[in-house]
Design brief:
About 25% of the residues lie in helices and about 20% in strands. It has about 290 residues and is an alpha/beta fold. The protein has a domain at about 1-90. It starts with a strand and ends in a 12-residue tail after the last helix. About 35% of the residues are buried.
């Protein structure tokens, strides 16, 4: 069979589902390539993660076109035999980084997040590290709430045992942090910790960030905190979190909900905070001249 793949979101971040689909078909001797409009395919797989990504309107010649991913349908899932495949990293030319999930699901059910609806409200183990890592130097972990998973100790132990540099990309739930969990995280050779402070009125998160601020290895550049804006927060509440995080020794990172309809002030705030050269040079937002950068 001749298989065509389409990453509708673009190639800025590799699509894990497409890498697994590619691996499964190649295991059966099929030809796999990025789909082009001049070729004919037995099957074209189109994957889209983000609902805000415009659909690919290119015409593909195929006997069958399969669309999947949260950008199309929250209920779409890979068949088990494909989900369990080791990803085809060659698809994106990835040489020394592994991508994958050890756990899925989250009990939080935040209104701005689709994880609970898509993956369930119970965090649960879905893989061992060997299912997507085989000695690469770096690991991009995609778990939505690893610390809520009953198997967190075993999974963090697998990451520590790998000796790879781990980026907890989606955020560790600081509200669930304990001394034992913090010690297990510090056994991992991590390149980046991500936490989140989504609500300025959430003092549990604030208190936990304070409690564990001196525990983590490395400096503030390895302790990033996502700050959700344009969702149940005011500009003053956004600034409060940004300044508080910097004071505590964390690195804030602005995330905008529904960015297209966000106020200009919020978009300027994102530009100031997320451009770290500017943020570390200009201490206060009121002094930031958004017309220059």
């Amino acid at each position: 069979m001749k298989i065509g793949l389409v990453d509708v979101d673009g190639h800025r971040f590799p699509n894990l589902a497409l890498m697994k689909i590619s691996a499964w078909h190649k295991n059966y001797g099929d030809t796999v390539e990025w789909a082009g409009s001049l070729e004919h395919y037995d099957v074209v797989y189109m994957a889209k993660v983000f609902t805000f990504t415009p659909d690919d309107i290119q015409s593909y010649q195929a006997d069958e076109i399969v669309k999947g991913g949260t950008g199309y349908d929250l209920t779409s899932k890979l068949p088990n035999e494909i989900e369990s495949c080791y990803p085809d990293y060659n698809l994106y030319g990835i040489e020394d980084t592994a991508y994958g999930y050890l756990s899925r699901g989250c009990p939080r059910k935040c209104q701005f997040c689709i994880v609970a609806e898509k993956e369930g409200m119970r965090a649960h183990k879905v893989a061992n590290l060997s299912q997507f890592w085989s000695g690469q130097k770096y690991i991009k972990l995609l778990d939505p709430n690893l610390l809520a998973c009953p198997d967190w100790e075993n999974l963090l132990g697998q990451l520590a045992g790998s000796g790879a540099w781990v980026d907890f990309t989606q955020g560790l739930d600081i509200r669930l942090m304990t001394d034992k969990k913090a010690a297990a995280i510090n056994n991992v050779k991590y390149s980046m910790l991500h936490f989140a402070w989504d609500d300025p009125h959430d003092m549990v998160t604030y208190d936990k960030l304070i409690k564990y601020k001196d525990v983590w290895k490395g400096d503030f550049r390895r302790r990033r905190v996502y700050v959700l804006t344009n969702f149940n927060s005011s500009h003053s509440g956004d600034l409060f979190r940004v300044y508080a995080l910097r004071e505590l020794g964390y690195d804030p990172y602005i995330m905008i909900y529904d960015k297209i309809h966000a106020p200009k002030e919020t978009r300027y705030l994102q530009r100031w905070v997320n451009n770290k050269r500017i943020f570390r040079t200009i201490k206060y937002f009121k002094d930031y001249d958004h017309t220059r950068g």
